[in-house]
């Protein structure tokens, strides 16, 4: 029977893995190899995918993919692979290589499975603040840092998480390319202690590559808490690799790790030795023949960097990258002839692919080493993660819990952020008023009050809301809940032609679309990557967040959190609809296996949570002091020039005439004092109206006003005025600039205006001419139309560049920019026109 036929709680032993190509390779690398016991943990709420436990770790597979794995439920294993060996494999001692001259700098490459804690270790060791999360695919490019320790300068590079070093995924190719191009002094293999067998598969590949390796046995506290026992010293001797237990999230073992790195670098560790993973007599014979041919000719430049044994193994596996690499050999044709001949011989002997035999041998090597050194706890406990999953991934409760949690997050951003937001708003108003009173009337004062304080201040007031949002998102990521979200939504994602792995970049898009686009590298299929990156702009990033808060606070104060939640849902709805359209028009639908880790739940450290939250806050503040500051100054200048003093002169003449008429009236007629006061208030208000009209005329005749008038025919059908149109245009660079532009453009009025919040100014804005004179510029209907436009239209320049970089072509970036803007215009047009017809 197949794995898909097992029911919840049933066990099976794998007897065959069918399928071909990338699917078969990936499944086996995740641990689904012959002879391994699999337990069905549970089905997803919609019965697909299915969660399994293999090697003590939870992973999920689609039902259709599980149907390609044959199992037996009996006590006897009927072997179908023809493997000629089992158990502990022979370890061979290689020749000691002559040490290289040392320098004062040690280059380190951190390599490990996704979610093994590499980035946490990187942050603790270097003092960096790179993002970490409890699911795979967060680190999508190399991060580097330098620091001093033990008299050396360490240059540490955090490489993307990978299950193996093959040629199937971008992160695998990136890791391999870095190892061979940068040639680090020491490779730190970061291992998740709670899942040794699968993590050590990558270690066997590092052994094949003949690299100097130090192992960080990370999350070691989880292994001891389970009551498991591991003979670390003996395992290190078997692997030829020194092992240091660490708990990087708490900083434990990190100093010892880098002390050991120095010891290995100085070649003072007697346990460091090169071993061979023994692949059996026939394969070892073929490897030796290919090695001998590679060692011939003028190939020293290659084999000085790349182990000839590793090359021979990869050539037998048919690795495309290594086939390209040997093209630089002087005897390439001879090497290829020998590889082809040996491949035919081995396939005829084993009646299976070489990849399968080598993968089985690696797991056999790992299994043998662990049998001698590792003892699992006899007590079979229900893990904490499984207990939590009974609720959070429950078929009935999972979706309501997810929706409720996200709604609560958005409610909390308003509820908790209101008071600090008001405090910042009061400070900005006080600062604007103080500067206006202290400085004489001049262009510098106008720049500071209207441009800098009005523009930057309008955006910075939303810092508390941003911090609160990122706090909750970081909390859900680091606990492991987000990986469960990918599990429960996979069936829905499958309906739109994608799968659960695409959900992670989409989820990251709520923080920032740029790293989300970069995270699509973890999606193996190119079509899936393109579709995912083209719908990521519908995920409301933190830059759009202040715009939503501003408009919602101005017009929908009674149900702010709920409306904000609905906006995010609308974005997700658009993303799903467009994914379906793209799959049926631009791209052919290709089914790919959904294999994703379900990491154990972990209690995040407060240090990690607050560091990540504050780091995002600093990024926001830096943006205020650079992009937003510059944009605000430019927008102010475009609204200030040309100065058009004639409007001021005309206004002063009108005001002077108004007061003259008033004085003449008072001199000719006797009024009671209360009548005089009332008349004076009326005249002052008329004078203010004249000045306001003059300021609006100056703004309309400025550079930005003329640009706005040109845009008016495009935005007027959507209910927008020219100021809103210009704000949207400026927001193409960065969405926060929408707010800063509105802040600058609404600095017209009396001297008391700097104390008014931008919310009040937008709410009180009126048309001063035309058929709508005296009517509000922005109504609740216009506000909804404006929010939807901001949600959908042109992603910022940084996202545009990221899509171009990740897709490798300008056309996909350009297409994304065009179709999102057109869709935004059409959507806002429909909302405003239908709403107007219905009388809203």
Structure, described:
With 840 residues, the chain is an alpha/beta fold. The two termini are 62 Å apart. Helix 23 (545-555) packs antiparallel against helix 32. A 6-stranded antiparallel beta sheet has the order 5-1-2-3-4-14. Helix 5 (196-208) links the parallel strand 9 and strand 10 (213-218). It contains 34 helices and 14 strands.
List the helices and strands and how they pair.
Elements: E1 11-17, H1 21-29, E2 37-43, E3 50-54, E4 57-61, H2 63-66, E5 69-72, E6 105-112, H3 118-126, E7 143-149, E8 152-158, H4 170-182, E9 186-192, H5 196-208, E10 213-218, H6 220-225, E11 229-230, H7 232-239, E12 243-245, H8 254-265, H9 281-294, H10 300-303, H11 308-317, H12 320-325, H13 332-350, H14 354-373, E13 374-375, H15 384-392, H16 398-438, H17 443-460, H18 463-479, H19 481-495, H20 500-508, H21 513-519, H22 526-535, H23 545-555, H24 560-585, E14 596-597, H25 606-640, H26 645-668, H27 673-700, H28 703-715, H29 722-730, H30 736-745, H31 758-764, H32 780-792, H33 797-807, H34 810-837
Parallel strand pairs: 6-8, 6-9, 9-10, 10-12
Antiparallel strand pairs: 1-2, 1-5, 2-3, 3-4, 4-14, 7-8, 11-13
Helix pairs in contact: 5-14, 7-14, 9-11, 9-13, 16-17, 16-18, 16-24, 17-25, 17-30, 18-25, 19-20, 20-21, 21-33, 22-24, 23-31, 23-32, 25-30, 26-27, 28-29, 29-30, 32-34, 33-34
